[in-house]
Amino acid sequence: MSSMKPLYSAAQVKSGEVKAAKAKSVAMYELMLRAGSEVFEVMRHQYPNCKRLLVVCGGGNNGGDGYVVARLALEAGIEVSVWQSVAKDKLSGDALTAYHDYLAVGGSVEAPDFSKELDADCIVDAILGTGLTGSVRADTAQLIEYLNHSGIKIISVDLPSGLSSDTGRSLGVSVKALHTVSFIGLKCGLFTAQARDFTGDVHFRGLGVDDEFDKQNTPKAHLLTTVSDFAPLLRRNKSAHKGHHGKALIIGGHQGMGGASLLSSQACMRVGAGLTALLTHPDNTIASTIACPEVMASSWQDKTSVEFRLSQWCDCVAIGPGLGTDSHSKRMFDKVCTSEVNKVLDADALNLLAANPNRDNQRILTPHPAEAARLLECSVDNIEHDRYLAVEKLYGRYGGVIVLKGAGTLIFDGKHTYVCNAGNPGMATAGMGDVLTGVIVGLLAQGESLVSAAVKGVMIHSLAADRDARHKGERGLCASDLLPHIRFLAND
Q1: Is 5 marked as binding a ligand?
Q2: 65 marked as binding residue
Q3: 63 is in an annotated binding site
Q4: Contact 228, 422 (CB under 8 A)
Q5: What binding details are noted for the cofactor (predicted)?
Q6: For 97-144, what is each residue's pLDDT tens digit?
Q7: Is 407 marked as a binding-site residue?
Q8: Are 405 and 317 in contact (CB under 8 A)?
Q9: What fold characterizes domain 228-491?
Q10: Residue 244: is its pLDDT beyond 70?
Q11: What's the Cα-to-Cα distance from 265 to each of 141, 250, 274, rounded to whole Å?
């Protein structure tokens, strides 16, 4: 787990940076100088042809970092304009020192002027820091909207102004940056919810004190970037046969919904399950056999087959893709709930669970925000308001391992939260969740633990989508396009 990146709350970073700097004998103003220097270096690297720079500074330390950037740019011969969003008498401490240092090299400041078109190659956003919790004030919101509509490339200091550093939601309006330079400890809110729309590429800079900070603080979550961040996939013996790699059962595919369960079954095979069986509506069995003969498809109306597969044959079961919610679907759901094997519940199985809540620590739930809202009897806005809190509430009510899907998918096992930093907007299409269900149950079949299957499954699924999008683009990405990439990643 050491390869995962730790994520922290804003409060942890605010108090922890002082303690870490003290332990390393680094003055706080020196930290500000280092932060401004790192932002400047990122700007020079990303936009080497920048000749005119606009730095927009607020009143806190975030604004102080901006004044450091402005001074460095001025000294490098760049034409610099600084907009000061607060009155000078609002500046204090290190931010005031940075302001005076900028003036000392010939810099000047002015109030934001919305009456003229901006003339800059790049903008540095240093307006609001991590302390913002309520909605952005009207005057600042107007400024942020103006910058966003300018069409000029924006680099944000620490986090885009207007974004919650803890939850990733936009507090009314947020700066839409192409790059964000974050310091000392990565903030939880940079990687989930609406944050994906605003942060652009996130660059981490420890400022020489992050090692001490990490020692002194326990992460709130962990950021995943590769499949092996959590742990490598289980190795296979050279003498292995199909029975050594698990028997996965998938239940789903009501009349007219056979594609959902077939996608799950194919994903289960492609991730490496030894044997995959599908119980589905009788209308789907022939089509499933033709489309994928390796999947053992049979009718869920065959009571003998259902009892054998569930009670004697399978090592794990996934239920929900295309399941439906009628009386027959409910009977299948009830049978799975009383089974002793590890389970994955998705789609209609989650809707049935919401109507009949129960706890089970032998299962993985994979809700999207609307399903999560039904499970918690709240609105989707409540879920997206604080996804970290939502995933904990889901665990509190239902147990097991929770996978809260969406931009920056969260995985919570009751002790640790993991955040997926992969995936792309092309995944917002039918069947993607069905494929994820198949990947996860396929990993369970091969002996992965519940949390390991959930974490690795989410990462394989998202990285598969990214691999395909890199070659063919995000638009038009289909769930079945992920299958060959899933196989590649399971063997990488």
Answers
A1: no
A2: yes
A3: yes
A4: no
A5: Binds 1 potassium ion per subunit.
A6: 999 999 999 999 999 999 888 999 999 999 999 988 889 999 999 999
A7: yes
A8: no
A9: UDP-N-acetylmuramoyl-L-alanine:D-glutamate ligase (3.40.1190)
A10: no
A11: 48, 7, 12
